[in-house]
Design a protein that fits this description.
This protein is an alpha+beta fold. Helices cover 29% and strands 31% of the residues.
Amino acid sequence: MLNINPNTDHGKHILNKLNNEHIIWIITVSAAGVPHPSPVWFWWDGQSFLIYSRANKPKVRNIEIHPTVALHFNSDFNGHDIVIFQGTAVSDPTIPPANQHSGYLEKYREGIASINMTPESFAQAFSNPIRITSTTLRG
């Protein structure tokens, strides 16, 4: 399990990014060994990441083959402020749909509307919940 110390400046900075950033990049690996980066919306619950994906997308297929993934935020303009997580991803059908996840919905309600979707249509389109448990933090 990932341990982020909220009593250090670095820990506070990382927790701020986890709680306030809207985009994180997930890198999966295909069966052929090719990295596949994708920007995604995410929810951090204090222990793991949750993303919702359309079914049968490359990241979903890649996770079935290679569950080890990396996640990272964009750097600043000069290439500083690097935060990279490594962990294990799994599709988890026991997770409620996005429109029933209050924290995720609160965070992305405006974003969902900006892509001309309702919470219900978003949940139907992005119907594959993926849980990522991070074990390593760099940066």
